[in-house]
Write a structure and sequence with these properties.
By secondary structure, the chain is an alpha/beta fold. The protein has one domain. The protein is 37% helix and 17% strand. It is built from twelve helices and eleven strands. The strands form three sheets. Strands 5-6-4-2-7-11-10 form a seven-stranded mixed sheet, sandwiched between helices. Strands 1-3 form a two-stranded parallel ribbon. Strands 8-9 form a two-stranded antiparallel sheet. Helix 2 packs across helix 3. The protein is globular.
């Protein structure tokens, strides 16, 4: 009973603190509207009918009138009724892939589980018409023309990011990876190359053991979904690790020099996008020349983006 009371008090205090932060942002940050987000995306080169896989930092946009709902509406208006939006709605109650796989009694259920990915993905899950893939660590949600195709087979895919996954199908449709207010670090599209190449990928990144994690379907059906965790030590060199500014900068500069990436501002967020098929081709060329999102600092320091064949 005491633990329950403590949890309730903590929840009330957390909501009060969040409200104070929102008020501070409202007073201190420039205001942005849904229509401005749409206009900025158009200016960047996002078109009607586009398929966007979105990674974002909500606070980087400025103070958005209408909050996360307005951001999503701005994105929907940018791609129109023939377009499609995908957002990462990952859920990892164990804190990592390995930690989640090792949780005793864990069963992913898309009907009850939210996401650990922040306010924008959490709000996206509440939108009418959103479809969500069934996956115990990397569930993806989509709305629009291709939403069903992108999400329907994830629980049947032999790997998280490979054949049959939302990433493989997104690549097949040649969508655009859109980053709003983020670096080149937290972009899960990178992992499509690993799962596609398998043992031909130049770095061993997976543990030996593949876990079969129980999941529920939308009608309560039971699935066992394969998940192979990463080797913990390898993630400390990865492009999304906090100390890897060098690798993030290298990747952006390489993509800029190869004229693969388009940059612009959405609201007050420095943003970028890149076509999925072009992105994959560039990542494969880098891997063929020994550069991956795991290349250690000492190795990368001897390589310049203009030294890589484009």
């Amino acid at each position: 009973m005491l633990d329950g009371l403590k949890k309730a008090i903590k929840g009330v205090l957390g909501k009060a603190q969040q409200k104070r932060r929102e008020e501070e942002l409202k007073q201190s940050q420039p205001h942005v509207s849904a229509s401005q987000i749409t206009a900025d995306l158009r200016k960047m080169g996002i078109e009607l009918g586009d398929i966007l896989f979105i990674h974002s930092s909500l606070k980087s946009l400025g103070y958005v009138d209408g909050g996360p709902k307005a951001v999503i509406q701005g994105l929907l208006d940018a791609v129109g009724p023939e377009g499609t939006l995908l957002l990462p709605t990952y859920y990892m109650p164990g804190g990592s892939i390995l930690g989640t796989c090792q949780l005793e009694g864990y069963v992913f259920d898309p009907r009850i589980h939210g996401t650990n990915m922040g306010a924008l993905p959490e709000t996206f899950l509440q939108f009418s018409g959103v479809l969500r893939s069934i996956h115990p660590t990397h569930s993806v949600s989509a709305i629009g023309k291709h939403a069903k195709f992108l999400t329907e087979a994830h629980h049947l895919a032999p790997t998280v990011f490979g054949r049959g996954s939302p990433w493989q199908r997104f690549h097949e449709l040649d969508g655009k990876v859109l980053g709003m207010g983020i670096s080149m670090g937290p972009v899960t599209f990178y992992h499509l190359l690993e799962d596609t190449l398998g043992s031909d990928f130049p770095v061993t990144v997976w543990q030996e053991n593949t876990y079969k994690i129980p999941c529920k379907g939308w009608n309560g059906e039971d699935y066992l979904v394969p998940v192979r965790p990463y080797i913990p030590e390898i993630t400390q060199h990865r492009i999304d690790y906090k100390s890897r500014d060098d690798l993030r900068s290298f990747m952006y500069e390489y993509l800029r020099r190869s004229r693969s990436i388009v940059a612009g501002d959405v609201g007050h967020a420095k943003s970028w996008f890149i076509g999925a098929q072009q992105f994959y081709e560039r990542l494969e060329k880098l891997a063929n020349q020994g550069v991956t999102i795991y290349t250690p600092t000492e190795t990368l320091s001897r390589i310049k983006p203009d030294m890589i064949e484009r």
